[in-house]
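Each letter names a residue; structure tokens follow underneath. Both lines appear below:
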Amino acid sequence: MTEPSGRIVGRPMVVRACGHEQEFQHYTVDKYRAQRLAKFQKTRCAECAAKLVEEQQRAAEALPKKAESLKSLPPGTQVSLTRQPDGSWTGTLSADGKAVEVAGVAGAGAQSVLIALARLWVVETETGREQSAP
């Protein structure tokens, strides 16, 4: 899409995906106004987008690191990975009597499912906290 040109002829308040109202600009020449408006309504305002990114970063920091989660798995851990028709992977990990399952997304590799399984097992069994305690 090209940038709209001409002067601004209207500034209606439009509700964004986050629920906040913001000004949307109407230009004299804007053949993609409908597409711009649809995208504007599907996205969050700058403040809410920044809050979402911050929350996601905090959540990622709370997860155990990849190497830590794999190293904390006990001997005898069994992992089963299955490739689905859409190209995604699903997996099951069982160790110490606890089993977890994860379904990956299409296009992601098997290793991403393995890491997700290990992290989930560590979080559910709280193994990482016990090992890192002094």
